[in-house]
Structure formats: structure tokens, C-alpha cells
């Protein structure tokens, strides 16, 4: 447990995916900290086309929170460490703690010496830490939460690391072999060992307050489903029936990986909405609260007045369209055509929805 931290004056930041035009996640950090990150897509890596990372560093460049790109592996099929051409690297399955140990030099970074402490234990509440609801757990995939404490010298100074993550593994028995896709998603919290306990509550407040964007998760999941369908079509043309059966198994593994992308980044839409929902507006009041603006920023939506509500209730529409119409049935038309008039030849009454502040 950590000491509660007052985050009321913290700065909001979102990791933007320029390819999809959506924020991947949102978080808050103390004044004086710097946030940065990136989202990369490779269409050729159809099993795992997207990876993202982010990090936050304090003003003294000491304390740090890092969200690492997902580590994705598959086995068998090639020499260990070599890419499989679809977004994964070949690596034999091993226990989650041993896999974390294998990746540890990369996580500690350049300039780190031999660790003097490396303790790993199970993390039962990994789903809570990563905001993963039970409805997002993929059947057939084994998950293991991990928590590790590492001490290692970096450029001569003792440094403390706390690593929180989860390991996934899914195995398919095919005609010629057993194919296992597995991987690891980790967050790394670190600072100089001297004074680490003082900054630790802030590190955990940043980490636990990082919220995934369900709209982005859904978009990535759809891309994964399309890739799995492409696998089916490609392998249906294989010459040997046994080879076809084995590769169809890979396609199903690809589908499980697509579901996992939704799991690892994501939070259930209902839970996200409940967490970010604005407080009730005061009687006669208008405008958007700070919570509501934060929700709009994360979800790619805009708060508007419901024209069918006599109380002026709030509803949400896409922030990327020019005009939004709604009729008395609650049906909505969102369009970039400013000349569109849905009232023509319509038996219902359409009204333009007004955005707050306009």
C-alpha cells in the first residue's frame, strides 16, 4: 500500500494514435513532470501490427514511470530471437518469472550494472492494476500477474525498480506441431534508491491512474479481426490439407492475440464511462465540468445538449463530425455535409444538436 496523493492540481496528458485518430490512453502527472510516447503501426506485422510506449520523468530526471511496448513471441518456427515476419519474435515458452528475467537487461536500460536484488512474486490484482474487467478476459488464454523489485547500479548510483505486469500464453495443437503465442506487458517505476520511498506514492498514483480508451481498444480489435480473416483466406489456398489445418490454427491464435490487445490496453466501456462520468449539473447550470471535458478528451467525443430533453440533458457525439442531427426518437445523424437536411421527405422532426459553448 502507498500513501494517498493529492492529484487535484496534476496535468492531464493523452497518448495519441495518429493512425487511428484516437487517444490510446489518458493519465495525469504532477506539474514539472514531462510526458512523452509514441504509437507505431506496421501493416506487414499482421499478427501484432501495433505497439506503443510512453514514459513520464520528473523535473530532475530521476523518478520515472515507463509503459513498455508489449513483448510478443511465438514458438516454434525459427531461431530464438529472430522475427517471424508477422510482428513476433521466436522464443520458446518459459515461466513468466524466467521470461521477465530474460528481458530484465532491456528494462533496466543502458548503463545499468548487474542487479544486486531481483525478487519476483505473483500479482493477484494484475487485472485491477491494468483496468481489465472480467468481460475482457479471453477464454483459452492463460494469464499470470507479476510484481518484481530490482536494485541495480546505474552509472554508479544505486537505483530501485518496481515492475508490474502480466504474462499471457495461448497454445494451439496443430497437425504438425504445437504452436504457442506468448508475451509480456510491463510497467516500470524507478528512481534513485536514496529517497525512493519518498517518491514512491507519486509513481504509483501515476501508474494506477492511467486509463485506457475503450474506443481505441475497439478499433484495434476490429483490425485484429480483419487480420485473422485474412489468415483464413490465405491458408485456405494451401496445397496440403494438413498444412491448411495447421495454419488455420495459427489464424485462431491470431484471433486470440487480437482479443488480447483489447484486454491489455483496455477497460470495459461501462466501467470507463462510470469512472469518467460527470457529476450532476446544478439546477439551471450550463457548460461542461472538468471531469466531463476530461472524458471528452479521452473518448474522442463532445458533450452536447439533447434537443429532445426539456431539462437540457447532456449526451455525447463524435467530436470529428461537422454537424449532428437528432429527432424525437433519439435517432442521430452525424455528417460532414453541412448542406444535408434530413427533414426533407421525413415523417420525424430533426433538430441540429448544439455543442456546449457554441
Which helices and strands occur, and which strands form pairs?
Elements: E1 11-17, E2 22-29, E3 34-41, E4 50-57, E5 64-67, E6 71-75, E7 89-90, H1 96-108, E8 117-122, H2 126-129, E9 142-154, E10 157-173, E11 178-192, H3 196-208, E12 211-212, H4 214-235, H5 241-265, H6 269-276, H7 290-299, E13 301-305, E14 314-318, E15 323-327, E16 332-335, E17 350-352
Helix pairs in contact: 4-5
Tell me about this structure:
The chain is an alpha+beta fold. 27% of the residues lie in helices and 33% in strands. Helix 4 (214-235) runs antiparallel to helix 5 (241-265). The protein is globular and about 75 Å long. It starts with 10 loop residues before the first strand and ends in a 6-residue tail after the last strand. Mean pLDDT is 78; it is low at 231-244 and 274-285.
**So how many helices?**
7
Most strands sheet: 9 strands, mixed
How confident is the prediction overall: mean pLDDT?
78
- The residue ranges in which pLDDT falls below 50 over 5 or more consecutive positions are 231-244, 274-285
Estimated helix fraction: 25-40%
Give the SSE order as H and E letters. Answer: EEEEEEEHEHEEEHEHHHHEEEEE
**Radius of gyration computed on alpha carbons:** 24 Å
Q: How many distinct beta strands? A: 17
What class, by secondary structure content? Answer: alpha+beta
Backbone shape: globular
Ends: how far apart?
45 Å
Amino acid at each position: 500500500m502507498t500513501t494517498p496523493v493529492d492529484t487535484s492540481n496534476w496535468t492531464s496528458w493523452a497518448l495519441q494514435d495518429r493512425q487511428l485518430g484516437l487517444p490510446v490512453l489518458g493519465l495525469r502527472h504532477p506539474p514539472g513532470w514531462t510526458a512523452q510516447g509514441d504509437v507505431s503501426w506496421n501493416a506487414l506485422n499482421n499478427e501484432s501490427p501495433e505497439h506503443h510506449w510512453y514514459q513520464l520523468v520528473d523535473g530532475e530526471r530521476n523518478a520515472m514511470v515507463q509503459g513498455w511496448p508489449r513483448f510478443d513471441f511465438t514458438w516454434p518456427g525459427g531461431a530464438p530471437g529472430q522475427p517471424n515476419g508477422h510482428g513476433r519474435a521466436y522464443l520458446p515458452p518459459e515461466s513468466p518469472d524466467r521470461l521477465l528475467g530474460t528481458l530484465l537487461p532491456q528494462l533496466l536500460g543502458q548503463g545499468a550494472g548487474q542487479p544486486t536484488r531481483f525478487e519476483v512474486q505473483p500479482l493477484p490484482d494484475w487485472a485491477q492494476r491494468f483496468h481489465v474487467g472480467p468481460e475482457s478476459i479471453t477464454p483459452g488464454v492463460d494469464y499470470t500477474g507479476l510484481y518484481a523489485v530490482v536494485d541495480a547500479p546505474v552509472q554508479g548510483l544505486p537505483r530501485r525498480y518496481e515492475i508490474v505486469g502480466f504474462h499471457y500464453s495461448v497454445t494451439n495443437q496443430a497437425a504438425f506441431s504445437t504452436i504457442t503465442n506468448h508475451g509480456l506487458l510491463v510497467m516500470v517505476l524507478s528512481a534513485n534508491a536514496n529517497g525512493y520511498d519518498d517518491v514512491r506514492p507519486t509513481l504509483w498514483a501515476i501508474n494506477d491512474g492511467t486509463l485506457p480508451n475503450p474506443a481505441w481498444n475497439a478499433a484495434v480489435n476490429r483490425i485484429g479481426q480483419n487480420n485473422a480473416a485474412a489468415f483464413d483466406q490465405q491458408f485456405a489456398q494451401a496445397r496440403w490439407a494438413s498444412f491448411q489445418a495447421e495454419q488455420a490454427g495459427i489464424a485462431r491464435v491470431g484471433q486470440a492475440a487480437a482479443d488480447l490487445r483489447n484486454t491489455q490496453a483496455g477497460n470495459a466501456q461501462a466501467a470507463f464511462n462510470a469512472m469518467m462520468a460527470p457529476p450532476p449539473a446544478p439546477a439551471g447550470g450550463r457548460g461542461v465540468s472538468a471531469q466531463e471535458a476530461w472524458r471528452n478528451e479521452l473518448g474522442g467525443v463532445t458533450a452536447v445538449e439533447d434537443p429532445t430533453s426539456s431539462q437540457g440533458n447532456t449526451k455525447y457525439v463524435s467530436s470529428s463530425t461537422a454537424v449532428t442531427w437528432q429527432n424525437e426518437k433519439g435517432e442521430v445523424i452525424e455528417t460532414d455535409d453541412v448542406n444535408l437536411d434530413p427533414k426533407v421527405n421525413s415523417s420525424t422532426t430533426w433538430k441540429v444538436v448544439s455543442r456546449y459553448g457554441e
